[in-house]
Specification:
The protein is of the alpha+beta class. It contains 13 helices and 17 strands. The two termini are 43 Å apart.
């Protein structure tokens, strides 16, 4: 009975308008290319004709003042217009809001500083706090179970409380791991970097309880990021109020990754915006309605674009079904030129996207 109920739930989920649109844009491969080991996998073609392109809209608006139906533009102290959707109050799109130097700065911070403890990442559950992951990947190190600190869960030892495990992990040189043979658990730092999915800044988000846990160790959001978020949030703020950044979630996307439709609804005051910064490869963003049954609007997100969601927009389902990592569609040439002398950052961002979304919690 329970099995059939689960199947029915999954089938029902497939029928929602949001889910159908996710599947429309999700990365799939041609069957014949998947079956050949020697042939490079070929992505299936997808119709992008209905995807809203704010870069093109902005260029047209700058040239002749034209706007598509349902989109309005206004100036708000930026050197470029801020666009809004008439049928989604509280949603704002600022194309190219971040300059190339700002983009590179926050890509570097996103890979080096933001995953640093006490900030938590998706790796905490398995490996505990991991220090200097990007440096370890650059140096081709391997994370190894430290057998010398292994203790019994019942021993009363608090030596490993910080990572909530009965043992600790540490980075070692590759040759050290090779000398131990297959007797120890290990994973390369480069694999861990590629499996990095999220990190949390400022007040830490407890994913198991879906709320903020002020008791967890945390640092304040870096001042430079706070000042940037305040400036970017201004077009969506209530008159006379200032945005107070208190937490941020950083999402990391690789080839084939997606972020399913969801709501960001754990903050106390929805009149304050979520400030969402896109870095790296181009993506498709879906903005739906208050129900998954509402057909979502698809739009491109490029490196440097900023999205603001406040008020009614906070009640709208949204997600990222696709990022583009191929040379034709990724649109990261300016980043490649700017990072040409920093190969490790360049290698990562050529096939990745980083999204920094900043929130006022209270």
């Amino acid at each position: 009975m329970y099995g059939s109920d689960k199947v029915n739930d999954e089938v029902a989920s497939e029928r929602t308008a949001f889910r159908r649109t996710e599947k429309k844009y999700k990365l799939y491969y041609d069957q014949d290319s998947k079956s050949s080991k020697n042939r490079k996998k070929r992505p299936k073609q997808v119709d992008l004709s209905e995807v809203l392109d704010f870069k093109t809209i902005s260029e047209s608006y700058d040239e002749n003042g034209d706007l598509p139906p349902g989109i309005v533009a206004f100036q708000c102290g930026f050197d470029r217009p801020v666009f809004r959707l008439q049928n989604c109050p509280g949603f704002s799109f600022i194309p190219g809001a971040l300059g190339i130097e700002e983009q590179c700065r926050w890509i570097k911070e996103g890979l080096t500083s933001f995953p640093q403890p006490p900030n938590r990442t998706n790796h905490n559950a398995m490996y505990g706090p991991i220090h200097d992951l990007f440096i370890a990947a650059k140096e081709r190190k391997v994370l190894v179970e430290d057998e010398n600190t292994h203790t019994s869960l019942d021993s009363g030892s608090n030596a490993c409380v910080s990572n909530e495990h009965s043992y600790k992990w540490k980075f070692c040189e590759e040759h050290v791991v090779s000398s131990r043979g297959k007797t120890c658990k290990s994973i390369s730092a480069s694999a861990l970097l590629r499996k990095l999915r999220w990190s949390t800044l400022g007040l830490q988000f407890d994913w198991s309880k879906r709320n903020y846990n002020a008791s967890l160790p945390h640092n304040k959001i870096p001042d430079a990021l706070c000042q940037l978020a305040k400036r970017l949030a201004a077009p969506a703020m209530p008159m006379g109020e200032e945005f107070h950044p208190e937490a941020a979630i950083v999402n990391y996307f690789g080839l084939g990754d997606m972020l399913g439709g969801h709501l960001d609804d754990m903050e106390a005051d929805w009149s304050k915006p979520i400030v969402s910064m896109s870095l790296g490869c181009k993506a498709i963003f879906l903005l739906g309605g208050k129900s998954r049954e509402d057909p979502p609007l698809a739009m491109f997100l490029r490196s440097g674009d900023v999205v603001l969601m406040a008020g009614e927009a906070r009640e709208c389902f949204h997600g990222v079904p696709r990022i583009f990592t191929d040379e034709e569609n990724a649109e990261i040439t300016p980043l490649e030129l700017h990072l040409s002398q920093e190969n490790d950052f360049l290698k990562y961002i050529r096939t990745s996207r980083i999204n920094i979304n900043i929130r006022q919690v209270f």
